[in-house]
Design a protein that fits this description.
Helix content: 40-55%
Number of helices: 9
Strand order of the largest sheet: 1-2-3-5-4
Distance between the termini: 54 Å
Order of helices and strands: EEEHEEEHHHHEEEEHHHH
Radius of gyration: 18 Å
Oligomer: single chain
Structural class: alpha+beta
């Protein structure tokens, strides 16, 4: 497949290592990865997407895994609408309403099961082992991770307002399932909290955490106990300045 063969005028989302195009004529979204992505990682993302499709969660339908101009690409159904992040930006007076919907969507994901997904603890243990933290800190984090309850809820792993599309008829769709696992919802909430912090909006991070804990009847201290573990496991990827912030959480968050 060649990009010139598609009815695309411009990219709808651009990241440092992938670009998403939209072919509105065929109702397709084409995510094109650069050479830094492994074939295994891309195929695994597509496999995760197909697993989620079999649950009750609204997500774009997987159409194909192919190559576009020699680069690997995942082709999905195109959802016409706006992300929650865009809606929050355009309607600041409705931020509370959108955040309420955001948490409701996350809780609906946690209510689903998908036995074939990777176990969250296994993925986090592997990530912690890859960090630049000293052996004593890694041992402490591994030990704390193993002491946390093991659940089997679907955890998106990158749940933020940019990954929720509200279609024109008001139906929410969740995208980007590359990090999905089965595990403890508290870890997923901790990850979302840290994503808000990394975006520079600590106020909405705190607002989100209070709302999540209230709606899920979860003690805030319980989610906070996950934060150093989640921060450490996420520090092995991403921008250097983000790794620095994440590693600071390992030191400063009280997880007793």
């Amino acid at each position: 497949m060649k990009l010139n063969d598609l009815d695309v005028s411009n990219a709808v989302a651009v990241r440092s290592n992938k670009t998403v195009y939209c072919d509105k004529k065929q109702n397709l979204a084409i995510k094109v990865f650069d050479e830094s992505f492994s074939k295994v990682g891309i195929l695994n993302e597509a496999l995760n997407q197909s697993k989620i499709e079999e649950t009750g969660i609204n997500c774009p339908r997987l159409e194909a895994v192919t190559q576009v101009d020699g680069k690997w690409a995942i082709v999905t159904e195109y959802i016409k609408g706006k992300t929650l992040a865009k809606l929050m930006e355009e309607n600041p007076g409705r931020r509370g309403e959108y955040l309420d919907l955001f948490v409701d969507i996350q809780l609906s994901i946690h209510a689903e099961k998908c036995p074939l997904l990777t176990q969250l603890k296994d993925k986090m243990n592997a990530k912690i082992s890859q960090t630049t933290l000293d052996a004593t800190t890694r041992y402490e984090l591994h030990t704390r991770l193993e002491s946390m309850p093991t659940h089997n809820k679907i955890c998106h792993g990158d749940f933020n307002p940019s990954n929720v599309i509200i279609s024109e008829d008001g139906t929410p769709y969740v995208i980007d399932w590359s990090h999905v696992t089965k595990g403890n919802a508290g870890a997923d909430a901790a990850r979302t909290y840290l994503l808000f912090c990394l975006s520079g909006d600590r106020a909405i991070a705190d607002e989100y955490l209070k709302l999540f804990c209230k709606k899920s009847d979860t003690a805030m201290q319980y989610v906070q106990k996950w934060m150093p573990i989640v921060a450490a496991s996420q520090s092995v990827k991403g921008k250097a300045e983000e790794r620095e912030i994440l590693l600071s959480w390992v030191d400063v968050v009280d997880y007793e």
